[in-house]
Amino acid sequence: MAANRMRVLPETFRNYLAWGYGGKRAFLAAMWHAGRASVGAFRSYRQIHWPEVSRVVFVCKGNICRSPYAEHRFRAWGAKAVSAGLLADPGRPAAPAAQQAALRRGVDLAAHRSRVTSELVIAAGDLLVAFEPRHAEALNVLARNRAGVQVTLLALWSSTPLLVYLHDPYGLSETYFDRCFERIDRGLKGILVRVPGIRRKTGDQ
Q1: Domain count of the chain?
Q2: Is residue 199 part of a domain?
Q3: Handedness of CA 110, 116, 122, 128 (dihedral sign)
Q4: How far is CA 73 from CA 25, 100, 101, in A?
């Protein structure tokens, strides 16, 4: 009986890590970056001059899961947004599991096609939003020498700002997709209340 309990507990914990964070390595990354956040490592990403923001650009790795959902959710709320991937393969639809998870939250990703960041025209007024600290570092390079372009981490504007690392849900469970998109929504709401003036006009992105 005791041996059975010992086997169940690790399995339960593994499930918790998989469902809540995307797995053991993702959990360790989240905790590492949470520790960094607690000592102010990402303070610069909170120093946003909100009146300058006229468009939000969501950027992840492949532009088929996290950033498409964030873009289309934000646009559904009437705000100007676009998305891209740092290493995207242009023209790909959103991952089927991402489409299904988005539909469960009332967001349709069927028309989405991926694009790489080099396809975007980055200009003054753009707020580049990353889902992982390493992506934010890459966006800092992209924003360098571009006046009026700012960079931030999505989770800094959510109700759990220390969880700045949001693991890629691609290939993971339906439960983790739901958790991931729920956390994205929290961050989006925190941004939206700070930039109420970026409402979309017809044809805007």
Answers
A1: 1
A2: no
A3: positive
A4: 28, 14, 12
